[in-house]
Design goal:
Distance between the termini: 30 Å
Largest sheet: 4 strands, mixed
Shape: globular
CATH class of the largest domain: Alpha Beta
Number of strands: 7
Radius of gyration: 19 Å
Order of helices and strands: EEEEHHHEEEHHH
CATH topology of the largest domain: Zincin-like
Number of domains: 2
Structural class: alpha/beta
C-alpha cells in the first residue's frame, strides 16, 4: 500500500487483480483507493480529483455521525434500545406483509455492519439491521425495514422488487436519499 495526496485528500492505494477502480471512505474519514495493477498513480490521482467533492462530502457525513460505544454495558444498552425500537417499527409492517403477501421473516437481528443498512437472508429467513440505524430518523429506519421485507418476495433489485417497494412506500427514493446523506 502506498499513501498519496491529491486535492488535499490523503488516501492509500491498494493495487490488486481487479478490473475497476473503487474509492472507500471509512467511518474515521480515511480514504482507500483500490485499483488494478495496470493503472498508473497519475490515472488514480485524476480519478480522485474527479471524485474529490464526493469524497469530502462523504468524509463530512461519516465523521459527523455519533459513534457507538466500543464495548461493555453502554454498547449492550444501545443494542437493546435499538432492538426494541426496530421491533416496534417492524411489527406492523411484518403483519402487513404476512397478511398481504403470505411472507414473514423467521426473526430479526441487530449488529454493526460496515457497508449495509440491512440484509435479508432467504436461506435462514432472518433480517439483519445495522445497529447504526439507531441514530437515523424513524422514517429512514422504516424504509430499511420495508426494503428488507420486500426481499422476502424478490431477492434481487429488479423491476418487481421496486414495484413492491413503490407500492408499500411511495416516497422510498426520498427516504433512501435522506438515509445516505
Amino acid at each position: 500500500m502506498k499513501t498519496v495526496e491529491t486535492e488535499g485528500i490523503v488516501y492509500t492505494v491498494q493495487k490488486a487483480a481487479r478490473k475497476s477502480v473503487s474509492i472507500t471512505v471509512k467511518r474515521n474519514g480515511d480514504v482507500c483507493v483500490r485499483a488494478p495493477y495496470w493503472i498508473t498513480y497519475g490515472q488514480i490521482a485524476c480519478f480522485v480529483k474527479q471524485k474529490a467533492s464526493w469524497i469530502k462530502k462523504r468524509q463530512e457525513v461519516l465523521t459527523s455521525e455519533p459513534s457507538l460505544p466500543q464495548e461493555g454495558p453502554e454498547r449492550e444498552q444501545v443494542k437493546k434500545q435499538a432492538a426494541a425500537l426496530f421491533h416496534e417499527l417492524a411489527f406492523p409492517w411484518e403483519r402487513k406483509f404476512e397478511s398481504q403477501y403470505g411472507v414473514r421473516p423467521k426473526g430479526w437481528r441487530v449488529r454493526e455492519m460496515n457497508t449495509r443498512w440491512g440484509s435479508c437472508s432467504l436461506k435462514t429467513g432472518y433480517i439483519t439491521l445495522n445497529l447504526r440505524l439507531f441514530y437515523k430518523p424513524l422514517s429512514c429506519i422504516e424504509y430499511v425495514i420495508v426494503h428488507e421485507l420486500c426481499h422476502l418476495l424478490e431477492p434481487g433489485h429488479d423491476k418487481n422488487f421496486y414495484k413492491i417497494l413503490e407500492q408499500e412506500l411511495p416516497d422510498w427514493k426520498a427516504l433512501r436519499k435522506k438515509l445516505n446523506h
